[in-house]
Amino acid sequence: MSFSVREGEGLWQVRAAAAQAGELADLLVAAGANDAVAVVSLETNSCLDEEWRPLRPSLVAAALGVPCTVHPIGSWASGTIGLSDEILVMERGLLPRLFDGSWSPYELALVDVAPDVTPDQLDELALAIGTAGAGEPLLGRLGDCRIWFSGHDDCYVSLETRDPALPATLLARLPALLAGRALAEITGRVGLAEAEAPPVPEPGAWLPERLMAMAPHWIGALADVTEELVVIGLAALPEPWRLGVPFPARADLVAALDVRRGNWRLTAAK
Questions:
Q1: What is the pLDDT at residue 189?
Q2: Where are the extended beta strands (E) located within the chain?
Q3: Under a CB-based contact definition with an 8 Å cutoff, are residues 39 and 60 in contact?
Q4: What pLDDT band is residue 249 in, cutting at 50, 70 and 90?
Q5: 52 in helix, strand or coil?
Q6: Per-residue confidence (pLDDT) for residue 48, from 0 to 100
Q7: What is the edge-to-edge ordering of all strands in the sheet holding 263-268?
Q8: CA-CA distance, 3 to 211, in Å (whole number)?
Q9: CA distances from 251 to 48, 123, 203, 208 (A)
Q10: How far is CA 122 from CA 66, 67, 102, 127, 145, in A?
Q11: What's the whole-number mean pLDDT along residues 142-156?
């Protein structure tokens, strides 16, 4: 797992791994944002037509029974990173239904919008996204939008938010996901439905708040896994983690989950 956060002028930028869109959908629903979302980019190889071509976003939503309005943005957006040829607008509460775990997007981007967003406003939104520079914060260009979420390979997360609580909430989710996957592997429960899989509690706010107070960039790796205890080594990094950067030779902290009691503890590495 990895996590990096930067704050400036009331805007928080987060980069994290590894979390799927479906594993974070409830956080995006709960965040204090507008009541609708615009899915501006959605690419997947999980949903194909008879000729093995990816379905358009609107057909993916229809197949999942997710009501939405569809706004085509025209051929000018073709090939533009972060944009599909159409934008889906839906109630924010429908995100868990859209990202239900039955399929996986390899590119995804969404932003919160007002339920009565107009076609002209969506065109302006697409233009702002399509003309943004690489690495440039987007929310500052998107009016009163409060959340920008982008995912790559349904694993790597980019998030911009005006909600100061959301970065810590996301950070608390990451060790729980890592521990849950590790326990599923050693118990042979990989692939179980969420309702059947053993619950893995998230640490309290104290854990992410302590990490964020110590350093802005972190990487975590499993150190030990049994059916009673999951141990994760955590190391602060001098800059955001990049693919291929190995875990440092020594951890700074150790996060441990007592599986039976459901308690997390954070201690200095020995």
A1: 63
A2: 2-8, 11-17, 36-44, 69-72, 86-91, 105-113, 147-152, 156-161, 217-225, 229-236, 253-258, 263-268
A3: no
A4: very high
A5: coil
A6: 84
A7: 69-72, 86-91, 36-44, 105-113, 147-152, 156-161, 11-17, 2-8, 217-225, 229-236, 253-258, 263-268
A8: 10
A9: 43, 47, 19, 16
A10: 20, 18, 28, 9, 12
A11: 92
Rounded Cα distance, 83 and 150, in Å: 11
Q: What distance in Å separates the CA atoms of residue 111 and residue 258, rounded to the nearest whole number?
A: 37
- Alpha-carbon distances of 247 from 6, 20, 101, 160, 229, rounded to whole Å: 21, 22, 29, 26, 21
Q: What is the pLDDT of residue 212?
A: 96
Residue the block writes with tokens 């969506």: 122
In 75-216 the beta strands, taken as DSSP E runs, fall at 86-91, 105-113, 147-152, 156-161
Of all helices (H) and strands (E), which one includes residue 243?
none
- The amino acid present at 19, given as its one-letter code, is A
Cβ-based neighbours of 247, under 8 Å, separated by 6 or more: 219, 221, 233, 235
Q: Residue 145 has which token pair?
A: 């939008």
> Helices 21-30 & 166-186, crossing angle to 10 degrees?
150
State pLDDT tens for residues 173-225. Answer: 999 999 999 998 887 765 544 444 557 999 999 999 999 999 999 999 999 99
pLDDT band at 144 (very low <50, low <70, confident <90, very high): confident
Residue length, the chain?
A: 270
Whether residue 218 contacts residue 235, with contact meaning beta carbons closer than 8 Å, is answered with yes
Residue with tokens 């009565």: 116
- The predicted pLDDT at position 195 comes to 42
